[in-house]
Amino acid sequence: MARLRVRLVVTADDFGYCPRRDEGIVEAFLAGAVTSVSLLVNGSAAESAAELARRHQIPTGLHANLSEGRPVGPARHGASSLIGSEGFFLGKMGFRRAVAAGEVILPQVREELEAQLSRFRELLGRDPTHVDGHQHVHVLPGVCRVFAEALQACGVRFTRLPLERGVDGCAWLEAPARAFAGAVEQDARAAIGPFVHHGLR
């Protein structure tokens, strides 16, 4: 009987956030502790991070960002449900509140995701190995469907499903962090259907 093979993938998020973080991530990759990275294409060090990924042949995916910094798509030029009055994304909890209140226009999410995929291709000269969401925005209700449709359309087959059983019950986590972990896990479970329907693994 053939033995089942399991492959452990350890992905370092926020590649491109800042040079010091990127140096640590590359060091971890070269030491074998990390097997892939997820690039923030709107990060302050995205270009140098992309160069590091090419130089060290690091498997690289897109860390789709709808919550921190500035957009790279059409939203950066004017009014958008994705940004506040200063032109920045709404923040981790602000974006979640806006989604829950029905204030986020989902076609604008699609535009921004497609713009980030395009920027990824500009930086690395290829498609991402996977796409996941900064601060787990990709599993939010409604957003997960847009995310799955866009990834299917561009041929990306892999994402992350943030199911971290038991984290919401960890006594060492402060109450807001436990509540956030529980909400993310609930959203991730609900996102399984749209992800599977659109061929994401």
Automatic annotation (TrEMBL):
Gene3D superfamilies, per the entry: Glycoside hydrolase/deacetylase
GO molecular function: hydrolase activity; metal ion binding
GO biological process, one term: carbohydrate metabolic process
Domain of life, per lineage: Eukaryota
Cofactor list: Mg(2+)
UniProt KW keywords: Carbohydrate metabolism, Hydrolase, Magnesium, Metal-binding
Record-linked Pfam families: YdjC
Function: Probably catalyzes the deacetylation of acetylated carbohydrates an important step in the degradation of oligosaccharides.
Homology family: Belongs to the YdjC deacetylase family.
Identification of the protein by name: Carbohydrate deacetylase
Species: Bos taurus (Bovine)
GN (gene name): YDJC
